[in-house]
Each structure stands twice: as structure tokens, then as C-alpha cells.
Automatic annotation (TrEMBL):
<keyword id="KW-0547">Nucleotide-binding</keyword>
<dbReference type="Pfam" id="PF00005">
    <property type="entry name" value="ABC_tran"/>
</dbReference>
<comment type="similarity">
    <text>Belongs to the ABC transporter superfamily.</text>
</comment>
<dbReference type="GO" id="GO:0016887">
    <property type="term" value="F:ATP hydrolysis activity"/>
</dbReference>
<keyword id="KW-0067">ATP-binding</keyword>
<keyword id="KW-0813">Transport</keyword>
<dbReference type="InterPro" id="IPR003593">
    <property type="entry name" value="AAA+_ATPase"/>
</dbReference>
<dbReference type="InterPro" id="IPR017871">
    <property type="entry name" value="ABC_transporter-like_CS"/>
</dbReference>
<protein>
    <submittedName>
        <fullName>ABC transporter</fullName>
    </submittedName>
</protein>
<feature type="domain" description="ABC transporter">
    <location>
        <begin position="7"/>
        <end position="239"/>
    </location>
</feature>
<dbReference type="InterPro" id="IPR050166">
    <property type="entry name" value="ABC_transporter_ATP-bind"/>
</dbReference>
<dbReference type="InterPro" id="IPR027417">
    <property type="entry name" value="P-loop_NTPase"/>
</dbReference>
<dbReference type="InterPro" id="IPR003439">
    <property type="entry name" value="ABC_transporter-like_ATP-bd"/>
</dbReference>
<dbReference type="GO" id="GO:0005524">
    <property type="term" value="F:ATP binding"/>
</dbReference>
Amino acid sequence: MTAKIEIRRANKLFDTGGRRIAALENVDLDIRANQFVTLVGASGCGKSTLLRSIGGLEDLSSGEIRVDGRPVSGPGAERAMVFQHYSLYPWLTVRENIRFCRALKIKREEITSADVEIASGRTDALIGLMGLAPVENAYPNQLSGGMQQRVAIARALMNRPDILLMDEPFGALDAQTREVMHDLILHVFALEKPTIVFVTHDVEEAIYLGDRVVLMAPRPGRIDSIYEVPLPPEREQDMKLSPEFTELKREILSRIRATSGMQTDRGMLDKLTATAQPGAAA
Ligand SMILES: Nc1ncnc2c1ncn2[C@@H]1O[C@H](COP(=O)(O)OP(=O)(O)OP(=O)(O)O)[C@@H](O)[C@H]1O
């Protein structure tokens, strides 16, 4: 069966002031339809670059990404993105923010009453699904971070995207709100069945949400290893305490440390301590 997203020998080089950075080197990955894939790895390993390339926001230096067999050459309505910063329109209410992207897609003079009805129905459904009914007429600056991110997710879902690309969407939220958002996104996933690619720094989040965890490594940015998550599809917070969960978390964390190039160097620490002693040579 062909994968929903096929990534073939993807390379991305950035040139910064004469220095070349290999953000992606020969990345090969297949993502099946309706799969929830999480990307983890040390800072700078190319997670966001890979996600943005799937979203068509970044051109590869070489290689190819195909969605449903067609090469990605730019953004498309079937691939919606959600970022860490909610990027809502501050002058629009929650309801208007959610509807806005659909309104943009149809020229005002071409809008039919059927379009309006469909958009309203979908907006209502998403407001209900995301628990936004009590704040539907509020403005973004009147909402907590968690609520704002619910609006951003609802807006991303408005056009029924096949693929949801999420770049650390819960990175700015406190631990409790994150847990609520985890269960919410799993509920959305079960109901709407998009294919989700989700970037995170948080290994626990990656395992709890993902069917598969893809671990990337830096310098050059590449795929280091892929883990199938040995948990049933219906996740519950208690599963985080299971031996399978804790063992996989330990394994992934240790692999991230090994690939980060930032392990604590005992010799270097001893040297620093010695030079910090009073009277030590500078
Ligand atoms: N627009 C850019 N110009 C120059 N270098 C870039 C650009 N975007 C990313 N890079 C570099 O490419 C590498 C990969 O960056 P990327 O943001 O994809 O990594 P990441 O794994 O998402 O990092 P983090 O976890 O810190 O967000 C890094 O070395 C980064 O500095």
C-alpha cells in the first residue's frame, strides 16, 4: 500500500554567513494514512525543517516529498499547520477566527447560501468538539493559552484537512493544560481521522500521542531510529505508568542524549572546576 506521505532522500542545506548547515540529510520516511507520527530529537536535528517541508513552507535542496503520490511544491488546503504560537487574528472573535480561513478560500461574490450553511455547521461542530462554546464570542486576548490553542486547532480543522502538521503546539502550555490538550487531540484524531505529524521536545508527549515515534539526530539532521509505540490505540493517562511506557521513554531519552553531542564530558567538567579554584591559572 502506498504511504500517504512519502519522503525520499530529502536534503536541506541552509547557508548562513558562509556556513552551510545540513538541516536534513538523506531523510527517508513513509507515513501511512490515519497514522499519528511524532518527531523527537535533540535541538537542531531538523524536526521543524522536515515538518515545514511536508507543509510546503520550505523547499528541499534535493530529494522529494509526495502526498498521495503527488510531489509537494507548496502549501495546500489538505495539509493544515498548527504552530506553538497560536497566530490568531486578534480583531476577530473565536467563532470568526475559526470561520475565517474558509471565508478566505471562496471569493465573496462566489459565496452561495449553501457555502454559508456548510461553514456555519462545521464551525458549530468544531466549537462543540473543542469545548469553545462558552467563549465563542470572546476575543483571543481574553483567552488562556490553552483556549487559544484550541481555537488554532479548530481553525486548522475547518477545511477537513487530510493531514495535520503540528509544531510543538503545546510547548508554551503548563503541564496540566498539556494533559487536557493531549486527550483532546487524541479525541479529535479518533473522530476526524487525519494523518498527524507532530513535533515535540517532550518524549512523554511523543509516546502518549504517537503510534510511531521518529527520533532524529543533529549535525547533519537525519533519522536515527523509529519506535512503534506498544500501547493500545485508546490512550489513558494511567498508561504513562506502565512498564512498556517507562521502558520506551528511558530508551528514547538515552538515545537522544547519545545523539545530541551534548553529553556531560567528565574531563571537561573537572578542568572547569580546577580553573575555578582560587589561585588557579587562568
Ligand atoms: N531559516 C534558516 N536559516 C538558517 N539555518 C536554519 C534555518 N532554519 C533552520 N536552520 C538550522 O537548521 C538546523 C535544523 O533546524 P530545525 O529548526 O529544523 O531543528 P529542530 O530540530 O526543529 O530544532 P529545535 O528542537 O531547537 O526547534 C538547525 O541547525 C538550525 O539552526
